[in-house]
Amino acid sequence: MSYAIIGFGKVGHALAKAFARNGIEVSVATTRAPESFASDAAAIGPTIIPKTLAEAVKADIIFLAVRFESHPQVAKALPDWKGKTVIDAMNTRAPIEELGGLPSSAFVAKVFTGARLVKGFNHLVAAVLDQNPAVHGGRRVVFLASDDDGAAAEISALAEKLGFAPIKLGGLSDGGLLVHARGNNWGQLIFKDLIKFDG
Predict the structure, then answer these.
(1) Is 0.70 surpassed by the pTM of this model?
(2) pLDDT tens digit string along 86-95?
(3) I need a labelling partner for 148 at 20 to 30 A (CA). Which of 31, 33, 42, 119 fits?
(4) What beta strand segments (E) does 22-60 contain?
């Protein structure tokens, strides 16, 4: 299984650190040449591989960590996203009218034709996502929503490998709305991020 992170801002860096902490190789890409962020990638660790966008989208599992406005540009990197699992880690300030009344992830899913889309990793602010998820005797939660149960299970397993506690919320229309952030409307679970088990 191969992994890529598209977008190398604060969230992209934080995701890359989660992979590096666990010694898992991941490609990172932006619309810029890889040389321009190679030193940033090297500073995180040897398993963080800078690539071009065209190279990075060859991965099986792809995190979208770009600004919401930029995702249509990323979608053009492949004519068809069949066989790919795309994790939407973005939030948007776009009003619901601009998205045709859809939750943002359902809107994104339409652009990434053929992809199995999972909403996830978006509700943790970059400064929290950046840290080891094992804290205070518990683990940071990542909420996952998808219309594809197989994809949700796959990303749930990856979240566990990265040290997080995944919680599946159902489909994009239901679960996605619980964790979305749009304008001044905040999903009910957007600020909940720690799970503890007694025993």
Answers:
(1) yes
(2) 999 998 877 7
(3) 31
(4) 26-29, 48-50
